Amino acid sequence: MSESQQPTKKQKMTAESDEQSAETTKAGCETTTTTTTEKTCKHWVQRKKRFCKMTVAKGKDYCGEHAPAVILEDGKSPEEQDRIPCPLDGKHTVYKKNLKKHLKICNAKPKEDLPDYIQKNVNAGVAEDALKSDQLNSIKLSELEDSEFYRVIDKVKELYNKHVDGQIKSLDYHHKCMDEELAKEEYGKESRKHLVQAAALLGILDNEQTIKNCTSFVEFGAGKGQLAFYLSKLLESKQNSQVILVDRMSLRHKKDNKIEDRSLVQRIRADIIDFKLEKLPALENSQHCVAVSKHLCGGATDLTLRCIVQAAAEKCLTDLIMIAVCCHHRCDWSSFVGKNFFKRHVVSPREFAIITKMVSWAICGTGMSRERRKALEEQNLTEQEIKEIQSNQRLSLAEREAIGFMCKRILDYARLEYLRENEYDANLFYYVEKDVTLENVVLLARRKEENTDK
Predict the structure, then answer these.
(1) Is 424 helix (H, G, I), strand (E, B) or coil?
(2) Whole-model pTM?
(3) Which residues does the chain have with pLDDT short of 70?
(4) 355 FRET partner, CA 20 to 30 A, in 135, 161, 193, 315?
(5) What is the separation of C-alpha 165 from the centre of its chain, rounded to a whole number of angstroms?
(6) Across 44-201, where does the E strand assignment appear?
(7) How far is 407 from 296, CA to CA, in rounded Å?
(8) Distances from the Cα of 391 to the Cα of 385, 386, 402, 429, angstroms
(9) What's the CA gap between 386 and 400, in Å, rounded?
(10) Residue 303's Cα: distance from chain center in Å?
(11) DSSP conformational letter for 1
(12) Which residues are CB-contacts of 244 (< 8 A; sequence separation ≥ 6)?
């Protein structure tokens, strides 16, 4: 661990205090009860600026993932101490000696008996486009010829001025159920930001008259379930209504675990790319279905929209779609639902990939990718030298930011056209102020009236 990665003195003191036992003395009692807290890993996670939160075995200082290898006198590690990437999921490692046992219990192990609502790649899009996406991901804006670079920018400006400019209105909704939570002073800026967004989204749902009896809200990419938690509070007085959370990850500290009435909530562990909404048993007794999401990253939005449209073909209709869109740089040609819009305007898959690269200009601050900035920092350049390099780029920071926002909205407009082609009235709105979050646009689509009856 380098000196720059070492935890500060204050952080070390916090970790040490976590290991100490907590003593509580009851008034009027002579005995003192001592409770020992669980000991956690001492590995400093540089990316998260904190210690690893995994608990460790008795007598150990590190969890299995971060335990340093035992080094013998000849400088080699014994085979039984070697850790290798898991063949099923390379994001974690396993002791080589335990590999056979681990493969039987690994969470990434393919399920043999899958429920009906899971079908591999059912929402993936056209298979042959996946190869194009893989090839286009390696494009770098800095390596583009000027002719191609400015040609794509001209197309972006033309499409934005024709289809988007002046068309996005602002909504001013806020659900009063969040007032008490927002009044708490203990919340920091980051926590408050998410609460403000949740209040605005709940206000939209209330205005759209969706919070009623016999309604299932399906939250795609639910994460830790904050939106579902507050939404379930509004459903306590409703009959046969529920929130269904869909997420591919098994996360800790989920907010929906705190919902006392378990009939109000159900969590489904599934990747949206494999999810068949029409096969979900929980929807059988619902008269209405509403799809919601608070920040559905990149291609996950496209997978969700295709999931909803394909379910509609099987007579499982979604009345309302409300998705706070974000992370457009993670869109890819293979899953994108708005291909027809780009094909009609002679935007090639390569130009689409360039547009998804340019969207990062909107919110990254410097107009420079993390990789590019890191490479410059590794050259030991000063902040001033980095700014000089930025000023010598083909566009100013203000120009890049403006074009980045145009790119994001064009991608969203292509999605609107896809929904309109599939019986939805769809529009984009600013649902919170820009100073709350730069990702302040919500996609709102309602099924056309003649198609809302199930």
Answers:
(1) strand
(2) 0.75
(3) 1-37, 69-81, 127-134, 365-392, 450-454
(4) 193
(5) 27
(6) 44-45, 50-51, 83-85, 93-95, 169-170
(7) 17
(8) 10, 9, 16, 33
(9) 16
(10) 13
(11) -
(12) 216, 217, 218, 219, 265, 266, 267, 268, 280, 282, 283
